[in-house]
Design goal:
Oligomer: heterodimer
Shape of chain B: globular
Shape of chain A: globular
CATH architecture of one domain in chain B: Alpha-Beta Barrel
CATH topology of one domain in chain B: TIM Barrel
Helix content of chain B: 40-55%
Strand order of the largest sheet of chain A: 14-15-16-13-12-17-18-32-26-25
CATH class of the largest domain in chain A: Alpha Beta
């Protein structure tokens, strides 16, 4: 109970009678004086935190950060220049060796100390977050900061166990991290904790609108004695972030923010070896079935779309209601919205605080106006707004259709768009009718309906009968254009690790100019008859026509052209179709139609792979004989032998690469399911035409993906042998498609194809860079050999978990339970 | 005033309660709302006016009941009232709740006040007496001058899904109450699941309950916020469907001033202003009053108070 000065009470206390009558909540402001005093210690002017010390910006420029609820300036913040970023990267690089030389236990102690320090200063951090961002103090106090502490505790554990749990892996090195303004300190924790636990050093750029808690965190680093340079904070705007992204001495970029910027970062890092993880936007569905607890679903929406003023990447912004309950649910929702309190963020009874910045408020207003102009019905409750500051009323759009702008675009504000559906299948269809795939919420009292729908929705997180639950142990991240990579959990840590051998692998020799491709080395005008043996038909096998393999059928190429395939001594071995963009298009469509492969049982997929091994083995001799002309008899035999083994390996893995059940710190299980990516384009290595092909395709197929593969450019004839094996081994049509032709040309079509979910590209540095750059369109995840040579003949390097990790994406399905 | 409606089994079948989500709502609700300073004083005074000051012990005596009634008339001591400058502010509890044996005693002790006398009845707390005896019990208490009768339901009807029997039982209780208010105790601790609580709430309201009440105070688990939320939501839905307002009374285990504020917040958020008045909301409590008084004393003096400074109930 709060302290009260008796003098506050009115003499006659008529005010009390009035309060007794109205039963209003009154005002309950959080006292911010101690936090403001902390700012004053810095004279309200902050430099960068580089190499364990505060540094004035090289160019001497500062910008203001302000309180969105009042517009008042809070402090001056250093504007980071390329020079500042460079200094920070140098500091991080300098600190790397020492940090990695520490024992895992020593690093664990630092992370543990940071967790403790966050807890000790939790209220200061909460208040700073609230005044800088505008979010209600209840949220920063009860949600953000406790999750920050939990994240550091959890990762202190990973730091301790790193060597035992990730043998053969090492840190990426210097990591550049760029975080958004909606959960400033929480996003910092999601970035810094796993990076440090894995042994990286970091340069972090907080958002321009909300730098304060990152700076407060820098002080915590000093207080726990973190070695200088392990954590560096450079403040600034987009240009500062850009400088960090393009800095040549950064080994990995982790970004959370808009899809648009994510795309730019994908392109900007394509030419480098920088590892990349992106956590981007969303337009997450909130699906309510007729058998849901409707009152609870309404509260779910309050937590889903009105948390943090709706400025949440995983906000449940698309309400999908089963038709039979749409009316009562809307009525309940409107009544509930009327009880929401929009007000000063520091007031403890505020539900919806201030919008972070004017530009964001204007964006919300603009999108809402567009929605109204399109004919959607806009409803807002009759509740008061503070007279000054950046506030926006909770808003409900009905009469919305999938075509509406408010149903498609991420608004990042307290705006909900409601639509209806008739059946569970239609709910899934509507839920997935978006470029994003970050999160979803599913409400039903039927475990069958809820889990079925949860498994069908394409999103990294699905909350059953709940929403916006987070825990450090459960990975968070999206499908589709919501980005790639996960934060939290084992899979989140993996983003900051790499196999030790990989970066030591030799560079692959640059192959012939890419646009020439196989056979073209000889050129169309070269002696077309070279290598063709004349003479009688006697003794010659019947002419063999290798075709493309699409949708389980051998098909002729759209182009009507073939290209030659020549052996090591220039001997013509045969011809393969010259595939083009239409063939790729057809193959992707065929793969799309074969997606039920992902819901086949793991046992079934394993059976198919074993059967493949059986049939490959049957044809060993003829395949080896033909391939020997290209790679030599010895390699051909080895490839075949190891290919059979590899098939056994992935048949074995198919039902053993299983998910996890997390136990977050409340009554809930979250099922971390390893799901297939979808349709994956594969550009196979030139060398090892058979083993290389299978080494890349098999983990994907074992995981339930459908593949459009471009076989070895050196010996594409292998396709002809492979599809005969596929056809006899019950591989469903469309699961593995093969298009021969010029790898660069075909890869470009795959990279740019929006219905291709991921691209695995093996080639020289140029090919890999192009793959990454062109994939920015739908932000498909691209996995390349970074131009390095991978020894597929080695069991250590050529198969196993590393491949399977990339062949899956983790979906966390949260299932609270209890009766 | 709830006249009841014919039993509609569709309403029972339509009950959906997600326990985890309900718990989440009650956990966050109490963190989303708070009242401080003068507002807190006002709310605590309001809590007192919604209180059924209760004694239901095997060792109750007439003198004990008279002492309780005296406290009911003067729930806040004069010095505290003076320090808060609310001497002229009328503050008394809503009712005194006793066993039938003490209805007469209480009625006399409360003469000249608006404080109502409530009697627990129908084989309280288990409700397993013969049906006719339970009805007779109600009539006797009404005849003795009780304004309100707190009846208990036969919990087995809920477990067995005998909604018609439950409905008939409560309708009979209601009829026996006549002009007295019929407050139906669901025994939520015994019902065990929130779904059962919701179903029993619906049957009680359809059968004409003026109030639905959580517990007897004798079960191992008494009034919890999740149970309260489920009952409040049922009351809201019933009101929307029938236009009739049913009151709510959490009872048992409510001991602190802070809890009283949480319950009032729950009412305000889920049911609205009407359910902050004693005609639609009551606390069943005894020791809570002492804690509220200590908090009020603190607000008046700025010093933390000791319980021995406040007259016993």
């Amino acid at each position: 109970m709060a302290d009260m000065n008796p003098a506050d009470t009115n003499p006659a206390n008529t005010g009390l009678a009035e309060k007794f009558r109205t039963m209003d909540y009154g005002v309950a402001p959080e006292d911010s004086s101690l936090s403001l005093a902390w700012l004053d210690q810095f004279k309200r002017r902050f430099g960068h935190f580089i190499g364990g010390a505060w540094m004035a910006p090289a160019q001497g420029q500062y910008f203001e950060t302000s309180d969105p609820s009042t517009g008042d300036k809070i402090a001056d913040i250093a504007q980071g220049s390329a020079a500042d970023v460079d200094a920070a990267v140098k500091a991080a690089r300098a600190a790397l060796q020492g940090w990695q030389a520490l024992t895992p236990h020593a690093r664990a102690r630092f992370l543990y100390a940071l967790a403790r320090q966050v807890q000790k200063h939790s209220r200061r951090l909460s208040v700073l977050e609230t005044i800088d961002n505008g979010k209600p103090i209840r949220e920063s106090r009860d949600i953000d900061i406790p999750l920050v502490a939990r994240h550091f505790y959890y990762h202190a554990g990973w730091a301790q166990l790193l060597g035992q749990e990730f043998p053969g892996y090492q840190a990426c090195g210097v990591v550049g991290q760029i975080i958004p303004w909606n959960f400033p300190l929480l996003m910092l924790a999601w970035k810094i904790a796993p990076a440090l636990a894995a042994g990286n050093t970091v340069v972090l750029k907080p958002a321009e609108f909300t730098p304060l808690t990152a700076l407060a965190f820098a002080e915590l680093c000093l207080e726990v004695g973190l070695p200088p340079g392990v954590v560096n904070i450079v403040t600034g705007d987009g240009a500062t972030g850009q400088a960090l992204v393009v800095h040549p001495d950064v080994d990995k970029i982790a970004f959370t923010g808009s899809t648009e910027v994510g795309r730019a970062i994908r392109r900007a890092t394509a030419d480098s070896h920088k590892k990349l993880s992106l956590e981007l936007g969303g337009k997450s569905p909130f699906v309510v079935f007729e058998d849901a607890d409707l009152d609870s679903a309404v509260e779910g929406l309050v937590d889903g779309i009105w948390l943090n003023q709706g400025q949440v990447c995983c906000a449940g912004s698309r309400l999908l209601m089963q038709e039979s309950i749409a009316a009562p649910l809307s009525r309940k929702l409107q009544a509930r919205m009327g009880a929401l309190r929009v007000g000063p963020p520091l007031d403890k009874t505020t539900d919806i605080g201030a919008i972070v910045a004017r530009v964001q408020l204007e964006r919300i207003e603009g999108l809402v106006a567009q929605g109204v102009a399109e004919g959607a019905s806009c409803w807002q409750p009759d509740i008061p707004l503070p007279s000054r500051g950046l506030y926006y009323k909770p808003t409900l759009f009905t009469n919305v259709h999938p075509t509406s702008v408010v149903a498609q675009q991420e608004i990042f504000g307290p705006v909900l768009a409601a639509m209806t559906f008739r059946t569970p299948a239609e709910a899934v269809e509507l839920a997935n009718n978006t470029a994003y795939g970050l999160a979803a919420s599913v409400w039903s009292e039927s475990v069958n309906v809820a889990l079925q729908v949860a498994s069908r929705i394409k999103a990294g997180v699905v909350w059953v009968n709940s929403t916006n639950l987070f825990d450090a142990a459960s990975g968070f991240g999206g499908y589709r254009e919501s980005g790639f990579g996960r934060e939290g959990g084992r899979e989140g840590l993996r983003e900051y690790l790499e196999p030790v051998w990989f970066r030591k692998a030799p560079l692959l020799a640059r192959s012939a100019p890419h646009d020439s491709g196989p056979g073209a080395a000889a050129g169309p005008l070269a002696d077309a008859t070279a290598g063709r043996e004349g003479g009688s038909l006697d003794g010659r096998p019947i002419d063999r026509t290798v075709k493309l393999y699409i949708g389980g059928k051998q098909v002729r190429p759209d182009s009507g052209y073939s290209i030659e395939c020549r052996g090591s001594k220039g001997v013509l071995l045969g011809e393969v179709p010259l595939g083009n963009r239409k063939d790729i298009r057809n193959a992707v469509e065929a793969a799309g139609r074969a997606q039920q492969w992902s819901s086949a049982t793991a046992h079934n997929r394993a059976q198919v792979l074993y059967y493949l091994a059986e049939n490959l083995s049957q044809r060993a001799q003829e395949i080896v004989t033909r391939m020997a002309a290209a790679v030599g008899r010895r390699q051909a035999s080895r490839e075949l032998k190891l290919s059979v083994e590899r098939l056994f390996s992935y048949a074995a893995w198919a039902d053993k690469y299983e998910g996890t059940v997390h136990s977050p710190p409340f009554r809930n299980i979250s099922l971390a399911m390893n799901e297939a990516l979808g349709t994956v384009g594969v550009v196979c290595p030139e060398s090892a035409p058979l083993l290389g092909f299978l080494s890349m395709v098999l983990p994907l197929v074992a995981a339930g993906n459908c593949v459009v593969a471009v076989p070895s450019a050196a010996y594409p004839l292998i396709a002809g042998d492979l599809y005969q094996v596929f056809e006899t081994s019950d591989v469903p049509g469309g699961v593995i498609n093969m298009v021969t032709g010029r790898p660069l040309e075909l890869m470009k079509v795959l990279a740019e194809h929006d219905d291709v979910d991921a691209l695995w590209c093996y080639g020289d540095e140029g090919l890999c860079a192009t793959a990454k750059r062109l994939s920015a369109g739908n932000l498909k995840q691209v996995w390349t050999n970074e131009g390095l040579q991978i020894d597929f003949f080695s069991e250590c390097y050529g198969e196993g978990r590393w491949y399977l990790d990339h062949a899956h994406q983790v979906k966390n399905i949260w299932v609270p339970y209890g009766e | 005033m709830n006249t009841g409606v014919p039993l509609d089994l569709d309403w029972i079948d339509g009950v959906r309660v997600n326990t985890s989500a309900v718990e989440r709502r009650t956990t966050t609700l109490t963190a989303r709302r708070t009242v401080k300073k003068d507002w807190q004083v006002a709310w605590l005074l309001r809590a007192i006016t919604c209180m059924d000051l209760t004694t239901l012990s095997g060792d109750d005596t007439e003198e004990r009941v008279r002492r309780l009634c005296a406290k009911a008339r003067h729930p806040v001591s004069n010095d505290v009232r003076e320090s808060l400058r609310i001497q002229d502010f009328p503050v008394q509890v809503a009712a005194v709740c006793v066993y039938h044996l003490f209805v007469e005693t209480a009625r006399r002790a409360l003469e000249g006040t608006n404080i109502r006398v409530a009697a627990v009845s129908t084989g309280f707390p288990t409700g397993l007496n013969a049906f006719e005896e339970r009805l007779a019990e109600i009539r006797r208490s009404v005849d003795a001058g009780a304004h309100e009768i707190d009846v208990v339901i036969t919990r087995s009807h809920v477990f067995e899904g005998h909604w018609q029997r439950l409905y008939d039982e409560i309708a009979a209780f209601k009829q026996a109450c006549g002009a007295a208010h019929c407050k139906v105790i669901l025994g939520t601790g015994d019902l065990a699941t929130l779904r059962n609580v919701a179903r029993a709430s619906w049957v009680a309201m359809m059968a004409g309950a003026d109030f639905i009440k959580t517990s007897t105070g004798k079960e191992s688990v008494n009034a919890t916020l999740p149970v309260g939320l489920v009952m409040a939501r049922a009351i809201r839905e019933y009101s929307e469907r029938t236009g009739m307002a049913v009151g709510f009374k959490p009872a048992g285990g409510i001991r602190t001033a802070k809890q009283s504020l949480e319950w009032l917040t729950l009412m305000k958020e889920e049911l609205g202003q009407g359910w902050l008045e004693p005609d639609l909301f009551r606390f069943g409590a005894s020791s809570m009053l002492g804690d509220i008084e200590r908090q009020l004393a603190f607000h008046g003096s700025g010093r933390y108070s000791a319980s021995y400074h406040h007259p016993l109930a």
